[in-house]
Amino acid sequence: MDFSEDEIHRYSRHILLGEVGGTGQARLRAASVLIVGAGGLGSPLALYLAAAGVGRIGIVDDDVVELSNLQRQIAHGMADLGHGKADSAAAAALAINPAVRIETHVTRLSADNAAALIGDYDIVCDGSDNFPTRFLVADTAVRMRRVLISAAVLRFEGQLSTFKPHVGGPCYRCLYPEAPPDGMVPSCGEAGVLGAVTGVMGTLQATEALKEIMGIGLGLSGRLLIWDALDMRFRTINIRRDPACPVCADVAVACDG
Length: 257
Prior knowledge:
Layout: H1 5-10, H2 12-15, H3 21-30, E1 32-36, H4 42-52, E2 56-60, H5 85-96, E3 101-105, H6 114-119, E4 123-126, H7 131-144, E5 147-154, E6 157-163, H8 172-175, H9 188-191, H10 195-214, E7 223-228, E8 233-238
Parallel strand pairs: 1-2, 1-4, 2-3, 4-5
Antiparallel strand pairs: 5-6, 6-7, 7-8
């Protein structure tokens, strides 16, 4: 596995875990994850994936840091105001672990670049804040046969699931066939969000990504996790694959292993 003394010391608490060990840590080092959005969800994602030793991390965001972001987007600070979020998040992640490779994509995900970006990584984690981007990420992940870990937050609630239709699970559109009409679901800028909720959900996203990379534990494919922070209550809802889904119905299923 060829770990340096520094790596063994840095990742010692991982390596002590029987489910992880040196083999799991090597898988993390060899893996790549794309983070869509360097905001409330993407911030803890980037920091924890880098801290865990994921070898290559991509960050897609074309926005700049604003003062209102700092209530929840912990990868950024006062010195980053007016600077690009992708670069700011990359700098924060590298400050934790300079041994990982961070690739910044200062662009908006679009139909023109989604396949190239998502196809270049093993896993995509969606932390975007709008429905068009969420559906574009989800549909492209199906087409490129990539694991998608998707989270969303609003007010005091968060949702999280993992989508792997290429190994038999449902896709995002099996859960949400179409985006809601404009104006039906308010944005965080309109309705508000408790800052720590984004931290919890982004950290749960990172946890799911690490588990998927190492092949350990029970993931959230086929289940939707919902967290109500006010009541401090977690619940899960089973998601079934839709045999008539226009996106994943014809996806050939491979062995998950």
